[in-house]
Amino acid sequence: MKEYVRQLPPIHEMQKDNRFQQLVSTYKLHHELVTELIQNQIQQVRSNLLNGNFNGPSTAKTEFIDLLFTHVENDCIRISEYYLQPVINATGTVLHTNLGRARLSEKAIEQVVNVARNYSNLEYNLSSGKRGSRHDIIEELIINVTGAEAAMVVNNNAAAVYLILRALAKDKNVIVSRGQLVEIGGSFRVSSIMEESGANLIEIGTTNKTHLYDYENAIDENTAMIMKVHTSNFKTIGFTKTVESDELVSLTKKNDGVIFYEDLGSGSLFDFKGNSIGDEPVVADIIDQGVDIVSFSGDKLLGGPQAGIIAGKKILIDKLKKHQLARVLRVDKMTFAALEATLKAYLQDTEKIISIPTVRDILLTPETIKERANQFVAKMNEATIGFECEVTEDFSQVGGGTMPEVLLPTYVVTLHKNGQSADTIATLLRQSKPSVITRIKNEQIILDFRTIMEDESATLISILKNL
């Protein structure tokens, strides 16, 4: 192997090669960066040779150089491409956390582009000509759609929970049912966030049953808050008992100075229950019960950008706005732009609300989805690509840690091709441009047309042709 190591070319020799300048020119990269990529590849080959892990050419120096330039060009391609790129979500999961959760409405996208392209009045009051506040951009809208006295926005719901606990309950007791000490994606636990905030966690009840008297017995002179965490990412069934929000509102009113805070998690502004989908509470209904403060996500059932929305009593929201963490956790102009456009839809008629992709896709009827699937299969058959296609009934999921028990009836297209496993086809689809993310069921590829848009069908057929 040492003999092969000696065949490795020096850096300056590769820099003199015409292919070096071609890489610099083609991929518009700095001379120094391409040199560094060459150095890294030579070091990698040298290491593999000495460790006996090298599987490339082992004779001519020119073959080494060809191999190195091939790897360096792959590195140049990788660096030149955007890491974050659109994908076709064929899984049927509407709020797919790994795929970016909620897709924005066209109005929200237009507003983001408009604000990003120009200067904006982010912190400038156009009426007075003086410095303005970011909180003013969105507060009135949130008040109108939730019925709260005041509101503010931070960068996600975990941040909202942290700010509320830190600002309103630091070094004080916060009572939480053991059945609500949830863990969300990425192993983030409510108990850990509470510990970091400086609040003292007081656990009550059991995993499956918590009674009103458990809360009553836990209240003492150091109690700052009762916290209810909506278990939106799991369901406990069977021998269970939870205390309703209106009961906890009454309890805190009897105990002066104790705040009732409800972390709603998903934060639905649309009544999906009224459409026989799940039992997710509507934010406005929770506020109407007299809850002191609530928080919820912007990129789940609301259908907007990632954000943590806090709404509730003005005296509490004002404290949060003045806290030093409010600046640490604030959101940028693009988030405000997308959120403003999304919230405005909720002030209009149902047709405007359904323009929000999350709401629209959850409400899609099986009949509409079946028609999409049938059209796709007809076009596949016309193209004679060689895949066996069949439209069958199945179920979609809402996803994003939301409505875990809800199965949405749907129609899917199953794909099968002789001589190719489902895993192989799924990998090829994932590595295509654009990437297609699928499900596998019974050794067949599943394409769920709840989340495949009509304009994506032609692209998908073209990709399948290329396989």
From TrEMBL:
Main location: cytoplasm
Places the protein is found: Cytoplasm
Protein's UniProt keywords contain Acyltransferase: no
UniProt keyword Plastid present: no
Coiled coil start-end: none
N6-(pyridoxal phosphate)lysine modified-residue sites: K300
Any GO molecular function: L-seryl-tRNA(Sec) selenium transferase activity
EC nos: 2.9.1.1
Keywords: Cytoplasm, Protein biosynthesis, Pyridoxal phosphate, Selenium, Transferase
Pathway terms, separated by semicolons: Aminoacyl-tRNA biosynthesis; selenocysteinyl-tRNA(Sec) biosynthesis; selenocysteinyl-tRNA(Sec) from L-seryl-tRNA(Sec) (bacterial route): step 1/1
Cofactor (UniProt): pyridoxal 5'-phosphate
Catalytic activity: L-seryl-tRNA(Sec) + selenophosphate + H(+) = L-selenocysteinyl-tRNA(Sec) + phosphate
Entry superkingdom: Bacteria
Span of the signal peptide: none
SUPFAM superfamilies: PLP-dependent transferases (SSF53383)
Family matches, as HAMAP family: SelA
PANTHER family: L-SERYL-TRNA(SEC) SELENIUM TRANSFERASE
Annotated family: Belongs to the SelA family.
Function of the molecule: Converts seryl-tRNA(Sec) to selenocysteinyl-tRNA(Sec) required for selenoprotein biosynthesis.
Protein name: L-seryl-tRNA(Sec) selenium transferase
Organism placement in taxonomy: Bacteria, Bacillati, Bacillota, Bacilli, Bacillales
Gene name for this UniProt entry: selA
